[in-house]
Amino acid sequence: MVAKDLSPREIVAELDRHIVGQSAAKRAVATALRNRWRRQRVTGDLRDEILPKNIILIGPTGVGKTEIARRLARLADAPFVKVEASKFTEVGYVGRDVDSMVRDLVEAAVKLVKEEEMGKLRARARAAAEDRVLQALGVAGDREKGRARLQAGTLDDDDVEIEVAERAVPPVPVVAGPGMEEMAHGLQEMFQQMGQGSLGSIFGGARKRRRRAKVREALDLLTEEEAARMVDMERVVREAVDRAENHGIIFIDEIDKIASRESAAGPDVSRGGVQRDLLPIVEGSNVSTKYGMVRTDHVLFIAAGAFHVAKVSDLIPELQGRFPVRVELEPLTRADLSRILREPSSSLTRQYAALLATEGVEVTFPDDGVEEIARIAEEVNERTENIGARRLHTVMERLLDEISFDADRMRGSRIAVDARYVRERLDGIARDEDLSRYIL
Q: Are strands 249-253 and 80-84 parallel, antiparallel or unpaired?
């Protein structure tokens, strides 16, 4: 089923494959995504009046806030950028301009659409690449016989000299201060365009270079080059800008770090300024990019923060009003941590098993071992800082440290990481609060 046709229940089911729990957050983002599909089917002037209902995800670190937004964007083939609110600063101070998040979104959209277009042209590009390789090999006579040999792979290990486009030197870097990013983009583009002409060797424009490679590698290089050449970049840019405006998702993390509190003083006074600068972007405005003006009215903004000290009500009222959907994510329990190790298709246990299998070491994780890892992770989270599922990474690294280091000498070994194995390597560290604080 095409992602854009998924119902909210089906979207939640897809997210469940990668993220454990947090059903309320999944329901909220699934509804927001489906509302975009619904809006595209509204006719007349009313379509432009229907604005996305932006979301604030409230919860401690490591409970899945970023992953939910990232997986949602991937599911919808939507342009996606993640930014940290704490990296921005009020206009007039040194730091990133809030408009840069929109420029990053458009760049992500252009990259996404270009890759899609290149994928559609892959067959034609492959045929053109085969012609260039056959010409470089000096195949005479029946060209189709030579093509059949190429496609059969019988020529893969032959050497061939090809001509490929390559940048002579890196492009000239252009550094700009706050509010000057667009000028920097313009200067960068000018240098690159100059590089296409006689000054290419100075400014780093594309030029041709001959290189030797195996036929297999040459085909891949030339296929990419031919596909990029066939792409209509004007159409790509038009489609990318439209997709960024109507389907883009901007994830603003650490928004609680810019929440102004009445007692704020000193360095904190600029927090309100960042919120005021952020407000027009979230409300809907025109932002200048290297691809033209981009409207943000229908971009979906998903903000997230722990809100341990500051509260959502500490944000300026106007910004609060632009995030009508608020969802509190639940802290992870031992059962959740156990499921995270077992259920997702890219779970940590599967990742480590696959990594060590490349060395010929078979590592398995019986249920009792998984439960013990989850128990230790939960205990360390409770006694020290609660970093959610990220604690599993530190625990697993420590647990498998010896195997990972000596795997090249253990080819053919089979190791079951059961409860006893876990306790032998971690119990002492986990019980010692000082040790666990620094090691786990």
A: parallel
Which tokens sit at 319?
């910004």
Does the pLDDT value for residue 206 go beyond 60? no
Which comes out higher in pLDDT, residue 231 or 188?
Answer: 231
CB contact at 8 A, 81 and 103 = no
Structure tokens at 143: 């060209």
SS3 (DSSP) at 61: coil
Report the length, in residues, of the chain.
440
Q: What is the pLDDT of residues 254-309, one digit of tens each?
A: 888 888 655 444 444 466 778 888 889 999 899 999 999 999 999 999 999 888 88
Decide if 100 contacts 181 (C-beta within 8 A). Answer: yes
Question: Does residue 61 contact residue 387 with C-beta atoms inside 8 Å?
Answer: yes
- Buried b or exposed e, range 19-44, using 16+ CB within 10 angstroms: bbbbeebbbbbbbbbbbbbebeeeee
C-alpha–C-alpha distance, residues 62 and 22, integer Å: 12
Arithmetic mean of pLDDT over the chain: 82
> What whole-number distance in Å separates Cα of residue 430 and Cα of residue 257?
31
Q: What is the DSSP letter of 317?
A: H
Per-residue model confidence as pLDDT tens digits over 109-143: 999 999 999 889 888 888 888 888 888 877 766 77
Domains, in order of start, for the chain: 3-111+239-328 (3.40.50.300), 116-236 (no CATH), 334-430 (1.10.8.60)
* Interatomic CA distance for residues 8 and 12, integer angstroms: 6
Query: In this structure, how many other beta carbons lie within 10 angstroms of the beta carbon of residue 10?
Result: 15
| Residue 53 backbone phi and psi in degrees, to 5 | -95, 100
417-422 long-range Cβ contacts below 8 angstroms, 24+ apart:
417/363, 417/364, 417/365, 417/366, 417/369, 418/366, 418/368, 418/369, 418/372, 419/366, 419/368, 419/369, 419/371, 419/372, 421/369, 422/369, 422/372, 422/373, 422/376
Please tell me the pTM assigned to this model.
0.79
- What would the mean pLDDT of 82-105 be, rounded to a whole number? 76
